[in-house]
Design a protein that fits this description.
Oligomer: heterodimer
Low-confidence stretches of chain A: none
Largest interface: A-B, 50 and 50 residues
Structural class of chain A: alpha+beta
Number of domains of chain A: 3
Order of helices and strands of chain A: HHHEEEEEEEEEEEE
Distance between the termini of chain A: 56 Å
Mean pLDDT of chain B: 83
Order of helices and strands of chain B: HHHHHH
Distance between the termini of chain B: 15 Å
CATH superfamily of the largest domain in chain A: Rod shape-determining protein MreC, domain 2
Largest sheet of chain B: none
CATH architecture of the largest domain in chain A: Beta Barrel
Chain lengths: 271, 167
């Protein structure tokens, strides 16, 4: 009798887990997302309000100092801008002369972040746009970095009708081909489930140093070139001695991010 | 757990915790909080072995998988497995040892860490690991276990009131 009961419970257990195993191959995610989406939206709205409250009322003490620093920075940037305007004119002339044009435009979709699922082992966002708006897996996800330009947030991994899952560039399964803006050395950037990411295969002769900006190179045919990725925190030699390795701090501040831009761009070669 | 308790008490509690976690995740970083695993572990010693207990734990497993980027059945199987392990080990030991529950939770959390780390390494290429990485991973995992153990304890006190179970 006792044996029969154990067998019965075990059979029920396997039936349940087997059912759940089959469930993941059915389009059930889309259904769950459909049910949870209004709730996620309400959470995001309330979270946004709370964050705005803390930022506008409790952090006012820092505003004066920040304002002074920004004014100083603005002066320096205006000088820099004049220099770059001259360079741009020169570049446009050269571009016309050599008939080159690297600028490629892709349609974009602005999406709201409705859920941030982050634990020590994975970093995932849920956005409110899906296949209805033309999203596909592997599409790049970007955001505006205050005062700097367009930064890389991550990549779309799962797409459903009205919502999608995005992995951040800090997720362990994320990798992108990048280059150092100052020295133009190429490397591979990989997430590792931590706030910082690792830059690998940086050539030994590279003159890159702490504080250098890292941007996408466009060589992986997936992410367009020139997207801001992060700043180098530390560089050291690879244990194997063939390359250098660096720790990079992403420029995107995920906790102050409400909206992202999905670039409707699929890989130029099938991966 | 009866159907009535499941619908009127357990589901609203999960709904509230889901909502609170969602709001907080928009405001502050919550990397060490695994509310679904904590809720599953704290409810396992309080549940009767029946269909609704299975469904409750499967639901928590699905929500946990949904929270990240995992296959559904992993966490559901783990939670339901814990329920069966609790009931059978309780029968084997005949009476509840003073620290039995804490011992069970600690072992379960160790198993959870092992599960998380295994899934994590499945998605990570081993050659990009450094010494510092291992140090960070171990520290993070220990903190993750401790924070969740505290949650398990807190949620047990809450669940005892909500489900009206006598200890």
């Amino acid at each position: 009798m006792k044996m029969r009961r154990v067998v019965l419970w075990l059979a029920l257990f396997f039936l349940f887990t087997g059912g759940l195993y089959v469930l993941q191959y059915l389009p059930i995610d889309s259904f769950f997302g459909y049910l949870l989406k209004p709730l996620w939206r309400a959470e995001a709205h309330l979270g946004e309000r709370l964050r705005a409250f803390f930022q506008s009322y409790l952090l006012l003490t820092q505003v004066q100092g920040e304002n002074r620093a920004l004014k100083e920075k603005l002066l320096a940037l205006e000088q820099e801008l004049t220099y770059y305007k001259e360079r741009e004119v020169l570049y446009q002339r050269l571009e016309a002369l050599y008939q080159i044009n690297f600028e490629t435009k892709f349609p974009q979709v602005v999406a709201k972040i409705i859920y941030k699922g982050i634990d020590p082992y994975s970093e995932v966002l849920v956005i409110d746009k899906g296949s209805r708006e033309g999203l596909l897996p592997q599409m790049p996800v970007l955001a505006y970095v205050q005062g700097m330009g367009v930064g890389l947030v991550g990549q779309v991994v799962e797409v459903y009708r009205s919502w999608s899952k995005v992995i951040l560039l800090t997720d362990p399964s994320f990798a992108v081909d990048v280059k150092i803006l100052r020295t133009q050395d190429r490397a591979i950037l990989k997430g590792k489930g931590e706030p910082t990411v690792t830059l690998e295969f940086l050539p030994l002769y590279s003159q890159a140093q702490q504080g250098d900006r890292v941007i996408t190179s466009g060589q992986d045919l997936l992410f367009p070139q020139g997207l801001l990725v992060g700043e180098i925190l530390e560089i050291k030699k690879d244990p194997q001695g063939l390359f250098k390795r660096a720790e990079v701090k992403p420029l995107i501040d995920i906790y102050n991010l409400d909206f992202v831009v999905v670039l409707l761009k699929i890989p130029e070669v099938s991966l | 757990m009866s159907l009535r308790t499941f619908i009127l008490k357990f589901l609203p509690l999960v709904f509230v915790l889901f909502f609170v976690k969602g709001v907080l995740s928009q405001v502050i970083a919550l990397p060490l909080v695994d509310i679904y695993s904590a809720l599953a572990l704290s409810s396992v010693p309080l549940l009767n072995l029946n269909l609704w207990a299975f469904i409750s734990l499967a639901l928590l497993g699905i929500l946990r998988s949904f929270d990240g980027y995992y296959p559904y059945f992993i966490f559901s199987t783990y939670y339901i497995g814990l329920l069966l392990a609790w009931h059978h080990s309780k029968r084997i030991f005949q009476q509840e040892w003073r620290y039995y529950r804490a011992f069970f939770w600690s072992l379960s959390l160790l198993l959870l860490l092992l599960l998380e780390v295994l899934i994590f390494f499945k998605r990570l290429l081993l050659f990009n690991l450094t010494y510092l990485f291992w140090f960070d991973l171990i520290t993070e995992s220990i903190l993750y276990a401790l924070v969740n153990l505290l949650f398990v304890y807190g949620l047990t006190l809450l669940l005892k009131r909500v489900l009206e179970v006598e200890s």
